[in-house]
Each structure stands twice: as structure tokens, then as C-alpha cells.
Amino acid sequence: MKTVFISGASRGIGKALAQLFIKNNFFVIGTSTKGVVDFTHENLLMLQLDQTDSSSIERCARSVTDLGKKIDVLINNAAMWIEGDYEKEVDVTILRKTLEANLIGVIDLTERLIPLMNQGGHMVNVSSRQGSFGYISTIHTTSYSISKAALNMYTRALAYRLTDHITVSAIHPGYVKTDMNEGEGDLEPEEAANDIYELALRDVETGKFWFQGKEFPW
Ligand SMILES: NC(=O)c1ccc[n+]([C@@H]2O[C@H](COP(=O)([O-])OP(=O)(O)OC[C@H]3O[C@@H](n4cnc5c(N)ncnc54)[C@H](OP(=O)(O)O)[C@@H]3O)[C@@H](O)[C@H]2O)c1
Fold it and tell me: If residue 31 lies in a helix (H) or strand (E), which one and from where to where?
């Protein structure tokens, strides 16, 4: 049985991903800030993870190490968009917290999990078109967009560093009906999860940015 690690598995796209991977006979290690999700399964282990808290990140990585399972698929899905990030002027408090959660916390966790990944594994960083220099015409979520643009650069740097060991991809999941968008969007979480699942299992060139099976501009 293969193992997938999914951060932010309590709601939205991450929860749909956890359910999809379980259905396809994966062992799922999921996380949420409280360490719970509203369903149970014998092939699901939920861990507490707050990406703004370095001790929580350390504890989460230690729990995965102690489990003794190697990770085949790592999905960095957890992120936050903070109310107020729509204003024209940058709120530095929001910027700091967004970067801690969506970038620094993700990197801290990922660096601890890389040694636990199987050769030939796939890391998928859930990014956003908001982080794409090639896509954006008007930036109205500055802190969130900066965090995702930087996550894209981390994806590229890792792809270079881990060549011949782990495939590293970034993906834009689409505009999805989740809490992050107050339920608005073009896609159901299950549709976005399906796209991410297919990428995670596909044999693709490392270091690319994807959307619905096609390359997306960085
Ligand atoms: N929805 C969209 O249209 C859209 C578009 C582009 C990209 N994305 C990206 O897709 C991913 C999933 O988004 P979503 O829409 O499914 O979001 P969501 O419904 O708001 O769920 C966010 C998940 O991340 C976890 N999380 C939030 N803050 C965290 C923190 N500080 N530390 C650790 N975990 C934290 C949440 O856990 P708790 O339940 O414990 O809070 C939850 O499981 C994100 O990376 C997002 O940026 C979404």
C-alpha cells in the first residue's frame, strides 16, 4: 500500500483529496490545525499541523518519522488567505502571517519530509494562478500572490536539487468552491482533487506548473 501525505486535509480540496486517495487504496497521512477531520477510516491518520508554528511543524514531521512509513506522494495543500488581503495597501501583519503559513512553514515541513520520501516519489505543491507572473493582470491579493509566487520558485529550486530522485510539480487547482472563496468558484473540490490526483500519479517532467493536465505559465 502506497502512502500519501496531504497537508490541510480537514476541508475543501485537501479533504476531497484524502477521500480520493483512500478510495484508491492509499494510506493517507492528513493534517489540520486541530489534527481532526469529520470522518474516520482505517487507512487515515490525522496529525496536528499549524504551518505558522515551528514547534507544531517539528512535532508533525517527528510523528511521520515515528510512523516508519515512506512517503510516495507529498501534497503541500494547506494554505490560508487572510481577510483584508484585498486592500490596495499591503498590511505587513497580514503579509508576515501569510508568508509564514503558505511559504516558510511549507518549506520547513517539506525539508523535514524529503528524507522520508521514496525514490521515484512525487511532490505536488498546490499553488495558484495568483502566483503566476505569466497570468496575472491585476493583483488584488498581494500577500497571498507573493506567497504562491515564492512557492513556485521553491518548486523550481527543489526540482533542480532533487533531479533523478523525486519529481516536484506545482499545480493551480482552479477556482474552487471552498471556504477560502466563501463557497464561490467554478469547480467542486472533488473536481480539483481529481486533477491533483491525476498529476500526482502521472509520470511528468519535474519542475513544471500545471492546470487541468496542461502546463501553466510561471
Ligand atoms: N479554492 C480555490 O479557488 C483555490 C484557488 C487556487 C489555489 N488554491 C489553493 O488550494 C489549496 C487548498 O485550498 P482550499 O480552497 O481547499 O482551502 P480551505 O478550504 O480554506 O482549506 C484550507 C486547509 O488548510 C488548512 N490550513 C489553514 N491554515 C493553516 C495553517 N496555518 N497551517 C496548517 N494548515 C492550515 C486548513 O485546516 P483547518 O481546517 O484546521 O483550518 C484546511 O485544511 C491552498 O493551497 C490554496 O491556496 C485554492
Answer: strand 27-32
Q: Tell me the per-residue pLDDT of 70-80, one tens digit each, with 9 for 90 and over.
A: 999 999 999 99
Residue nearest atom 37 of ligand 1, based on CA coordinates: 32
Q: Tens of pLDDT along 101-136?
A: 999 999 999 999 999 999 999 999 999 999 999 887
Look up the pTM and report it.
0.98
CB of 51 closer than 6 A to ligand 1?
Answer: yes
Question: Residue 171: which CATH number?
Answer: 3.40.50.720
Domain total of the chain: 1
Largest Cα–Cα separation, the chain: 49
151 lines ligand 1 (CB under 6 A): no
113 lines ligand 1 (CB under 6 A): no
Residue 11 belongs to what domain range?
Answer: 3-215
Q: State how far the Cα of 167 lies from the Cα of 191, in Å rounded to an integer.
A: 23
